[in-house]
Amino acid sequence: MEVTRTALDGVYIITPRLFGDSRGYFFESFNQAEFEACVGPVRFVQDNESRSVYGVVRGLHFQKPPFAQAKLVRVVSGRVLDVAVDIRKGSPTFGRSVSVELSGENHLQFFLPKGMAHGFAVLSDEAVFQYKCDEFYHPEAEGSIRWDDPELGIDWRIPATDVILSGKDREGPALRDFEGLQL
User: Fold this and answer.
1) What is the pTM for the complete model shown?
2) In terms of C-beta density within 10 A (0-12 exposed, 13-18 middle, 19 or more buried), how is residue 18 classed?
């Protein structure tokens, strides 16, 4: 796999090696030894999958310590804009974001270490999204940042009139009202 650093420390774009011929293709979506050699030690304990339609924005979500989560995300089918926002207290890139388009066609993966708020917007008619987490989900540790906070300036690549949100995501606080995660 090829690992590309981003502007946020610990956030990587991962390109798997794809082997294709007239029958189709094959790739390893995850190999613990190779992953750790490139990114560092991470022990994933939970896999999740969601299916969403065009215009859905999920995020920006995170888990508070001691249940903060690192995530390895990918899209099986469709296209999404995937976003990481640094919410680590004291980080020199606090409040900055990086994004990448993930799709069933490009097979890219996005690794987010603990201390990132995470979200995605569905750009295709529908998308199937999968992610690995290194900590189990704990509802009492759930947190969010407002997806459309003007201080973040995220271009979700969807007209505001087409955005579909959950009630929770509509009510997230602005980054300025958030102290950051002490990890």
Assistant:
1) 0.95
2) exposed
